[in-house]
Amino acid sequence: MVMGNSILQKEVAQDHGTLVGENTVNLRESINRVIPGPPQEIISGRRSFLIRLRIRARIVWIIFRNYRSILLSVKILRSLLSFRHSALGENKVMKYVHVDGKYFLGLYIPSFNSKAFEAFILGEVNRIVPSGKQSNRFTSVLLSITKKCALRCEHCSEWETLNGNETLSLADLKTIVTRFQQLGTSQFHFSGGEPLQRIDDLLEVLKITDKRTECWVLTSGNNLTRENAQRLKLTGLTGVVISIDHFDPDAHDRFRGSLKSFNWAVQAVRNAKEVNLITAISICATKSFVSKSNLYAYAEMAKQLGVAYIQIFEPSAVGHYHDKDVELTNGKVKILEDFFLTMNHGKAFTEYPVVLYHGYYQRRIGCFSSANRHVYVDSDGDIRDCPFCRAKAGNALNEDIGRIVDQLRITGCNKFKTISV
């Protein structure tokens, strides 16, 4: 594969002060094993400015249609922009993703101009000025649909229950989804274990989701064949988040506990893109991985894969990492934050995937989980703050979900402050 003017051959953007060149050998090896297919379109520059104007105009119209006041609509829009400013400061959105005729602002915002986008905006607006009308309670619900998985990942948060007996039947999964739909959610993210171990049940669950809700699958890539990708797309899936934890195939395979896992993942990326599923890759950024050179090498791989997003999680001392010293130092966090800002706002990186780094927002405005905007339901149907803060609050099948999530919001995240709006 010809790398052209990639950052493998030269230093780009002096502000990040690093070269990817030291990782050239491993990165070339990984790229040579990739059959990327067409990239998903990253929109930047003048086009992104015009799209931003369209989005803001649409938001004002959505607000006006529900509150019938231009002045109030503009005031609410300013409050939304102020909330964003509290997280990102003066940094403007530089990039959007365009896939299958839809524009995406992020992994956790439904595609603009869909019914799900309107429901999402109304849910956010209702937090600022209650409308008295029913609105979405959640931005997303993460639902683990299986304990089964072919891998033995170093960081697995589900280690204690991995490959145990299944608790939730298909009927149970449908019940949980229906109950959360009644409270209102913009997105479902289906996880495991490996959710594609229950591909047929997953397809049945997708069939009953409301059109105001978009659905995603979080996967290792195992069983995301071209045929299964097509079936998921036709049944209504919006996108996939595929775990790739290193640009070096051997390092990824060791981390995931399988010599096949890197090949599964990159082939899954290709299969997903071919059927126009919006595609992200996700990494657990461990202490040993986090360096400027590693991060930019990973970004180069992501660009060659042609994905839309890179999602970064910090390791937590739960599951297989229980009682282990895995928390990132302040220095490592600073490297991740600089990478996040440079990739999303640096002019040299306008053609690279959008980066999502949850720790950046959590340290500035607080945690969106603990039933504030996101909540986690495990493979037993138990409702928890998130996969990393494991506090159990009740069961989604046989208890009052509204009461449970109200309690979760009071207790809040045990690591970061709770968001006030």
Explained architecture:
The protein has about 425 residues and is of the alpha/beta class. It folds into 2 domains: about 45-130, no CATH class; about 130-410, Aldolase class I (TIM Barrel, Alpha-Beta Barrel), CATH 3.20.20.70. About 40% of the residues lie in helices and about 15% in strands. It contains 13 helices and 13 strands. Strands 10-9-8-7-6-5-4-11-12-13 form a 10-stranded mixed sheet. Helix 7 links the parallel strand 6 (about 215-220) and strand 7. It starts with about 25 loop residues before the first helix and ends in a 10-residue tail after the last helix.
Summarize the structure.
The protein has helices at 24-32, 45-67, 70-88, 115-128, 170-183, 199-208, 226-235, 249-256, 261-274, 292-305, 330-345, 358-362, 401-411, and strands at residues 41-43, 96-99, 102-104, 138-144, 185-191, 214-219, 237-243, 278-284, 309-313, 354-357, 374-377, 382-384, 392-395. The chain is of the alpha/beta class. The strands form two sheets. It has a ten-stranded mixed beta sheet with strand order 10-9-8-7-6-5-4-11-12-13. Strands 1-2-3 form a three-stranded antiparallel beta sheet.
How would the blueprint of this fold be written?
Elements: H1 24-32, E1 41-43, H2 45-67, H3 70-88, E2 96-99, E3 102-104, H4 115-128, E4 138-144, H5 170-183, E5 185-191, H6 199-208, E6 214-219, H7 226-235, E7 237-243, H8 249-256, H9 261-274, E8 278-284, H10 292-305, E9 309-313, H11 330-345, E10 354-357, H12 358-362, E11 374-377, E12 382-384, E13 392-395, H13 401-411
Parallel strand pairs: 4-5, 4-11, 5-6, 6-7, 7-8, 8-9, 9-10
Antiparallel strand pairs: 1-2, 2-3, 11-12, 12-13
Helix pairs in contact: 1-10, 2-3, 2-4, 5-6, 6-7, 7-9, 10-11
